Amino acid sequence: MSRTTDFKKEEIIEKAMQVFWEKGYDQTSLKDLIDATGLLKGSLYNTFGSKEKLFLECLEYYGQFSRSRHYKDGDPVLYLKKFFKRLIEEGVDRDFRKGCLIMNSCLEFANQENALAKKAQTLFAATELNLKNVAELACAQQNKNSEKLKTNLITAAFSIREISKFRKDKKFLTQIANRALEDFGVQL
Amino acid sequence: MSRTTDFKKEEIIEKAMQVFWEKGYDQTSLKDLIDATGLLKGSLYNTFGSKEKLFLECLEYYGQFSRSRHYKDGDPVLYLKKFFKRLIEEGVDRDFRKGCLIMNSCLEFANQENALAKKAQTLFAATELNLKNVAELACAQQNKNSEKLKTNLITAAFSIREISKFRKDKKFLTQIANRALEDFGVQL
DNA sequence: AAATTTCTTGACCAATCGGTCAAAATAGAT
DNA sequence: ATCTATTTTGACCGATTGGTCAAGAAATTT
Fold it and tell me: Tens of pLDDT along B28-54?
């Protein structure tokens, strides 16, 4: 009865997200999105409505990706070790300066109060909740107060992600992680 | 023998710096700079040559401002307490979402390797050196290894500055500071 | 007061920004 | 094969980007 799209929406979101992740929202132009997705301006607007709405879908997509790496089961302390090990590995990679799209967006929209800022902060809260859950499980094993430990974890994760953008210093980044991990009696 | 400028260069740099500090380099347009300084485009280019060169002068100016708050003498631990107290006070201020221009610039130019990125990282190193010096003095008093403590200090300062942009949570920010200060046997 | 040098001004530049839209192309239902 | 709903396409929009430049204004030296 009518023509169908030549592309899969999710594939477009995935490609657009990569550009937004690398360059940030404002620094990503429509031309960038066109080049990355292979769609033309009209199709892009026909499908997503605006650059802002497309970004929201990309944020949500990244949120799914992020949640897929949240703690599910197993040893919570081991999860934390693997978690920080990965952050550092990505952090020292010279080709990886993108950080975390959620944190990037929280910072980029910090002095705004629009849908983008709100969405970014909601996703940040989810990331935080993940670490909070892990911290509580680990603390239950060790009979400790988890509130400060939770702050330490999210702060360490944030710091490693952001500082590693401009400082590819494994020792430095590992010290940050170890400072949070020592609460749980382990080190990298 | 010739006409003199109607303005003082330093006053222009100060005003331009405020805009760059609030909005970042790329998000600051020439119109913003014109509005903030009161100069017209021609005068701006006649005086500074380009937006980039103007920004470099602003960065240097901020660097002086930053250095003016570095440790000079007195009790190093007391300096640290005041240092973090101020960071948190500014951090919870709803009208203060600018963070630190040096850290902002390190992040903004993280995936570039131009004069701007270089300059920002050089200034970051100076900030770091300040905290390192203080840490060593304080450690000498207390017979401790200062290397990890130095990392903790700069990481805490960075985290408070950045996280406070989008999270005006005094308790949270204080926990970050206290985590670094506990090494020196004090708390906020 | 005149001469000289510099600063100030505003018009102008090409390029790009996010976004719109009418016409052409096309896939599916009949 | 035809009809129809939808997508694709590329031209076009006004606004803004960073930057240039010639002409006019003005301050200082002589």
Answer: 999 999 999 999 999 999 999 999 999
Look at chain B and count its residues: 188
Residue position matching structure tokens 């026909």: A46
Verify whether the Cβ–Cβ distance B179 to A106 is below 8 Å: no
Nucleotides of C under 7 A from a protein CB: 4-11, 16-22, 25-30
Q: Torsion angle, CA of B155/B134/A185/A176, rounded to 10 degrees? A: 20
Q: Using the CB atom, is residue B8 less than 7 Å from strand D?
A: no
pLDDT tens string B89-105: 999 999 999 999 999 99
Rounded Cα gap, residues A26 and A102, in angstroms: 15
**In contact, B54 and B154? CB cutoff 8 Å:** no
Overall pTM surpassing 0.90 (yes/no): yes
Using a CB-CB cut-off of 8 Å, the residues of chain B touching A121 are 166-167
Angstrom distance, B62 CA to C11 C1': 35
Through-space separation of residue A10 CA and nucleotide D7 C1' in angstroms: 17
- Per residue, what are the HEC states of chain B? CCCCCCCCHHHHHHHHHHHHHHHCCCCCCHHHHHHHHCCCHHHHHHHHCCHHHHHHHHHHHHHHHHHCCCCCCCCHHHHHHHHHHHHHHHHHCCCCCCCCHHHHHHHHCCCCCCHHHHHHHHHHHHHHHHHHHHHHHHHHHHCCCCHHHHHHHHHHHHHHHHHCCCCCCHHHHHHHHHHHHHHHCCCC
Cβ A127 vs Cβ A102: under 8 Å:
yes
**Separation in Å, CA of B176 to nearest CA in chain A:** 7
Is the C-beta of residue A140 closer than 7 Å to nucleic acid chain D?
A: no
Here the tokens at position A35 are: 């080049």
Helix (H) or strand (E) holding A4: none
Which residues in B lie closer than 8 A to residue A187 (C-beta atoms)?
A: none
